[in-house]
Amino acid sequence: MNNTGTQGAIGAVWRIESARVIAAVARMVRDVGLAEDFAQDALVAAMEQWPASGVPDNPGAWLTATAKRRAIDHIRRAKNLDGKYAVLARDLQEHDEGLETDVVERLDDQIGDDLLRLVFVSCHPVLSTESRVALTLRLLGGLSTEEIARAFLTPTKTIAQRIVRAKRTLSDAGVPFEVPVGAELADRLGSVLEVVYLIFNEGYSASAGEDLIRPGLCEDAMRLGRILAELAPKQPEVHGLVALMEIQASRFGARTDSEGTPILLLDQDRGRWDRLLIGRGLAAIDRALTLGAEPGPYVLQAQIAACHARAPIGKDTDWAEIARLYGVLGRVVPSPVIELNRAVAVAMADGPEAGMTIIDTLESEPALRAYHLLPAVRGDFLERLGRYAEASAQFQLAASLTDNARERDLLLERARQCTVRAG
């Protein structure tokens, strides 16, 4: 393999293995910042050595062993070790010669717990939402700072600062490298799932920029979700989130035309939906429901997505069931956005007047004041009622509130069409 091929292989290995390497080292040093530094040292060593020696048979174990050696060296050099670190250093020194073999033999046994610990540390509520997202993509997604910045259309310096501050905050707060237990587990798991879904949603419906979809972010979120489902197999909400992402991602091929223009859900060619992803999503829903708990927010949203996935054509969609599920979801996690979505389902099941009644109750909601989908939905209802001039005004308002260029163009086109029909 030539140098270019080797460097490409190193990049692919790093994307797959970096989280495992960082997690394994973080268990030793109890500091994710230090763990990432040692993992990066191992990556540099691979870039220096593998072009000449070739990619090892077990590159993940090689990286982990190298990173652990860097950690051991750091521990040995530290001048003010506390008692625990001193014992750890002596123990590690005794086993240093067989470290790589030890890593290969024990990696599968320990890596699940290590990764789960890293997930909970990266998504710790002591961090801001933006910092949790950036740190998770960096440590668990294997993305560089530049890649994260490009994905979120944010300056690289800003993302770098968020990551540095996040590591410092975790260190200063003394956040333990462990999986929470009992009641704390449910609370902390919600934070983890929120971060993964935020990453997915930014890829699924980009909040700004020229592209409606950024599949790379969705793929990163789905990969994290699948890992989490294997690490926490008895948590129904984890399977619910995986199901939701799988089913939503199944529509990628039909969501835009060849020029990137958005295609509304009911206008999409369902023959282009990915049936494999839909099948995986439906299986994940079944897995969640068999665990016996009352459906939580992600399971309910996945069930709503499944209603769309099961309908061979748009007119066969069970809108009454979708409206019912949104009603349940709104009771579990009250939200004006959920109520807005329920209004759409009610309008499809019972007519636009029924949906408009719900919309009218949402006008004063502060959370929706600058939310472009509120006037967009109102515009859709008005258009269906034949009130084209009013609908055009609502579509224009919605267009002014979105930062996504593709979405804006679609809304302005709908406004133009309504103006023409209004005469």
TrEMBL record:
GO terms for molecular function: DNA binding; sigma factor activity. The keyword Transcription regulation applies. GO terms for biological process: DNA-templated transcription initiation. Residues 20-79 form the RNA polymerase sigma-70 region domain. Keywords: Sigma factor, Transcription, Transcription regulation. It comes from the Bacteria. Residues 188-288 form the DUF6596 domain. This is RNA polymerase ECF family sigma subunit. It comes from Antricoccus suffuscus. The lineage of its organism: Bacteria, Bacillati, Actinomycetota, Actinomycetes, Geodermatophilales.
